[in-house]
Amino acid sequence: MSTQENPEENLPTEQATAHGAVKVAEDPFADPGLPPHKPRIQDIDERAAKRSERAIAFMFTLSMLATIGFIASYVIFPVDEIVYIWPFGRVSALNFALGLTLGAALFFIGAGAVHWARTLMSDVEVADDRHPMEATPEVKAKVMADFAAGAAESGFGRRKLIRNTLFGALALVPLSGVVLLRDMGPLPEKKLRSTLWAKGKLLINMNTNEPLRPEDVAVGSLTFAKPEGLEEHDHDFQTEIAKAALMIVRIQPEDIKDKRELEWSHDGIVAFSKICTHVGCPISLYEQQTHHVLCPCHQSTFDLSDGARVIFGPAGHALPQLRIGVNDKGFLEAHGDFEEPVGPAFWERG
């Protein structure tokens, strides 16, 4: 007969072993193997408990300060600043500060919670019998009672210093996520509306890095230029050349159809933005016979003899023209900046 058919009251009260008969306990699982509980110093000494409380509150306070440091990093460190930090080498100051402060904020919340659980919360291990998956009203009542007992044993309501600093740390950490929205990009302000071109700035040949004279530009040729003072080793070169890049062509004055284009040129030399007005690709393909320039990205085509208007493709508006002239030394110079923003349109463009 199997043991499953024997009622519990028929189980043997003694068990034979090599050393003789041993009495079997009435409840064979009365001791599930848990070691005897040993009280901690915080359980018997309130001064030790207070020290732990202050240590936990200090960690939560450090988390709050680290979160504030995370937010302040966006203001303090420029996005392009590179610093040397041993042993990491040359790194972005902003990225390093953001990672360090956010990591510290999360670490000190976790460390404070672990220290709280190990020193002040109840450490008595409780073994409970298995129960059916469907909770009975008695089980629900027991769960709520256990929860209330756990809350009381944690000292969450009684130890206000821990509670308040924890709330402060948890309230500040989500602000890091709000600040991350700023990482979608710096506010452009009016930077998209202007370039480095200004009255009196010389047109510098991109290939020779020398100022251009009218005789340097032949009819039918295409020349690329940059504003005087912009050098390739400048930290903001790519940002500025993306707006100020210029293409220069020479057309017979009688072939220029647009009146303003003719007025803004010098002896048939016209200067237009090199940046396509569709998505900002650099234009580099020029047809001498038709005076058309083609964007290689999406085939937008502009007529440089007619105000650089769009004659084909997805570009939304003509290429901006730069008014040019010749200074007293015979060099080509700008008479000001572009009168409209270069490149593709943007949402706040007036």
Describe the model.
By secondary structure, the protein is α+β, with helices and mostly antiparallel strands. Helices cover 33% and strands 16% of the residues. It is built from seven helices and 15 strands. It has helices at 41-44, 46-76, 93-119, 137-154, 160-180, 237-244, 259-263, and strands spanning 14-17, 20-23, 82-85, 89-92, 203-205, 222-227, 246-250, 269-273, 285-287, 292-294, 301-303, 309-312, 321-322, 324-326, 332-334. The chain has a five-stranded antiparallel sheet. Strands 9-10-11-12 form a four-stranded antiparallel sheet, with no helix packed on it. Strand 10 and strand 11 form a beta hairpin. Helix 2 packs parallel to helix 5 and helix 3 runs antiparallel to helix 5 (160-180). The longest helix is centred in the N-terminal third of the chain and has 31 residues, at 46-76. It is elongated, with a radius of gyration of 39 Å.
Features:
350 residues, alpha+beta, 5-stranded antiparallel β-sheet, 4-stranded antiparallel β-sheet, 33% helix, disordered N terminus
Output the number of helix runs: 7
Percent of residues in helices comes to 25-40%
The gross shape turns out to be elongated
Overall radius of gyration: 39 Å
Instruction: Give the beta-strand count.
Output: 15
Alpha-beta content class: alpha+beta
In the predicted model, the low-confidence regions spanning at least 5 consecutive residues are 1-8
Q: Order of helices and strands, N to C? A: EEHHEEHHHEEHEHEEEEEEEE
Q: What is the strand arrangement across the widest sheet?
A: 5-6-7-8-13
Q: Characterize the biggest β-sheet.
A: 5 strands, antiparallel
Strand content: 15-25%
